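Progress report, Aim 2. The chain analyzed during this reporting quarter is listed below.
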Amino acid sequence: MGLTQARIAVDAMGGDYAPAEIVAGAIRAKEELDVEILLVGDPDQIRASVADTESLRRIEIIPAEGTIEMHEEPLSALRRKPKASINVAMSMVREGRADAVVSAGHSGAAMAAALLRMGRIKGIDRPAIGAVFPTVVSGKPVLVLDVGANVDCRPKFLEQFALMGSVYSEYAFGATNPRVGLLNIGEEPSKGNDLAVQVHQALSESTAINFVGNAEGRDVLSGNFDVIVCDGFVGNVLLKFAEAVGELAVNILKEELPRGILGKLGVLLLKGNLKRIKQRLDHAEHGGALLLGVNGVAVISHGSSNAPSIFNAIRLSKEAVDNGVIGHIQGQYQQVTASVTNGD
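Predicted structure tokens for the chain:
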């Protein structure tokens, strides 16, 4: 674990409910987590978003000018707005003033800014967005990547995703020899499109990861895998469908359980259980997705993130910083490169 407080730069201006919900989540994180919070954005709007400005006393506000709007093309907007909150936040990591960035703003802009400001980890061709999914095994999540950064992928990209996911799963989740699966339409090596067949062969031959075979859609939440890799097109569809199913399940519980006297009594008796169910199903409890492959910790949250989502995104970024995930990924790629160079 880290010996000093993780310094988290939070893009206060990014998201549908910015800055109020972003600031509220950041304040809670400061109060409950061992972190230093740096709110990046318009100081006047940040202060005006809270009823009690005293709650901001222990949080540093970093001035920025403007934000990248959802309709804007990321790269051109980032160049036109060098002082936009996401640019300033990413620059802080590059300059060593922050250890991680959390943003619920334009996800394309966040990814582009991370690449421009932080750069890629040596050996990584494309960064991937890794989302944490709950499984039927309590306390055993699965990391799915990519869930949106790369719509079209080459086999080597998915090999890199598998290695990065394995490192993250080991050091952030404590998984021993993480089990890696390839999302596919069948268990057999010959199933799927050309990309899936090529990736299956490459992963089977890799000595750097513990590849255990294809994972069908029904296997994603089974708890039998620690990491599942796929291209960003399929991964994004999977992510949004899983979020919708989680919301549906939570809403059904809210609607059906309180019906009648016995139902209301049951809700009172099962209050703690229902809270834990919500924590496992509600995507807001997972905070966001990690951008793995850039030379720094970046968490991309939902555009509709509320205060609990931002709190959990900050918690996710703190765990990545405290467990030295970036350094471990860098070290793993150095080993792989050395092995190739030596002809092992």
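The mean pLDDT is 88. The two ends are 33 Å apart (CA to CA). These observations will guide the mutagenesis work planned for the next reporting period.
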